[in-house]
Design a protein that fits this description.
It is a single chain. This protein is an alpha+beta fold. The protein has a single domain, classed as Exo-inulinase, domain 1 (Jelly Rolls), CATH 2.60.120.560. It has three helices and 13 strands; from the N terminus they run ααβββββββββββαββ. Helix 1 runs antiparallel to helix 3. The radius of gyration is 18 Å and the shape is globular.
C-alpha cells in the first residue's frame, strides 16, 4: 500500500510540472472580485462585458434535460424550481421518487463555469463535466470528471478514497482539494464553485480560492485514473467536449446563478 501512495505522489507531481506549459492567460475572465450587486440569476455589467451568459435562466428548464441516455426531456420528478432556486429533492433509490441527474442540452469544450450551491446536512452531490451520455452504449452516461459537493463532517464518503480525494471541492476520487474549505464552510449559506477548462488544463475554485489544478490527456493523468474507481473506463476525462451535469445523489441540494464563459 505504501508503494501505491508513493507512486500516486509522483503522478501528482508530474501533473503539476505540466502546468508550466505555455497557454493564453485566461485569468482576466475569472472575475473573482465583482462588487456589483445584482439579482439572482442575472449578469452584472462586468460579466456581460467579459462574455458570460446564464446557463440557467432561474425560471424554466430551458437548456437542461435528463442525464439518461436517449431521454431528451427534463425529469418530471425529483427536481423543482422554487423562487429562483433549482432544487434536487431528497429521495431514495428504489422508491421511484428520484429524477436522476440533469445535463446541459449543449456540449462545451473550453469554458469557465460558475455555480452557486447550498447543501443540506449529510448531503452528497457533484458538478460533472466532459459527460457523454452515449459513452459505451449509454453505460457511461453519468461518468465524468466531478467537482465534489459534500458535507465533509456528516457524510462517510469524506473519509473514503485516498488522501482526502473525496472531500468538498476535490476532483472526485482523483485529486484532493488543497485548501481546507470546510473550516470556513457555512451550511446555511450559498457557496460558489468555479470550474475552468482550457484545453487539457482544468481548475476547481471554491469561494474564490483555487483548490484543484491538473492537466488531462497526459501519461500522468492516465496513470492517476488507473489508481481510481474509474480505472475500467478507458479514456476517462479525455473527451474534447461534453455536457455539464448536476447530480441527483438522493440528497437535497440547491443551485442558482449558473453562469458560463466560453473560452
Amino acid at each position: 500500500m505504501k508503494k501505491n501512495y508513493l507512486s500516486l505522489g509522483a503522478i501528482l507531481f508530474g501533473l503539476a510540472i505540466c502546468l508550466a506549459c505555455n497557454r493564453e492567460d485566461i485569468t482576466r475572465y475569472y472575475n473573482l472580485n465583482d462588487s456589483e450587486k445584482v439579482e439572482d440569476n442575472t449578469l452584472s455589467k462586468k460579466e456581460v462585458k467579459l462574455g458570460y451568459t446564464l446557463l440557467w435562466d432561474g425560471k424554466t428548464t430551458t437548456g437542461w434535460r435528463s442525464g439518461r441516455n436517449g431521454v431528451e426531456t427534463f425529469p418530471t420528478k425529483g427536481w423543482e424550481i422554487d423562487n429562483g432556486i433549482l432544487k434536487v429533492n431528497k429521495g431514495k433509490s428504489g422508491n421511484n421518487d428520484r429524477g436522476g441527474d440533469i445535463i446541459t442540452v449543449d456540449k462545451y469544450e473550453n469554458f469557465i463555469l460558475k455555480v452557486d450551491f447550498k447543501i443540506t446536512k449529510g448531503a452528497n452531490s457533484g458538478i460533472k463535466y466532459f459527460i457523454n451520455t452515449d459513452w459505451q452504449g449509454g453505460k457511461g452516461a453519468s461518468i465524468g470528471c466531478e467537482y465534489q459537493l459534500l458535507d465533509d463532517e456528516n457524510h462517510p464518503d469524506a473519509k473514503l478514497g485516498v488522501n482526502g480525494n473525496r472531500i468538498m471541492g476535490s476532483l472526485y476520487d482523483l485529486i484532493p482539494a488543497t485548501d481546507d474549505v470546510w473550516k470556513n464552510f457555512d451550511m446555511d449559506s450559498f457557496h460558489t464553485a468555479m470550474i475552468v477548462v482550457y484545453g487539457n488544463h482544468v481548475e476547481h475554485w471554491f469561494d474564490g480560492i483555487k483548490v484543484v489544478e491538473y492537466e488531462r490527456n497526459t501519461q500522468e493523468w492516465n496513470a492517476l485514473v488507473a489508481y481510481s474507481k474509474y480505472k475500467g473506463w478507458e479514456g476517462f476525462g479525455n473527451f474534447k467536449t461534453g455536457h455539464i451535469l448536476l447530480q441527483d445523489h438522493g440528497d437535497e441540494v440547491w443551485f442558482k446563478n449558473i453562469k458560463i464563459k466560453i473560452l
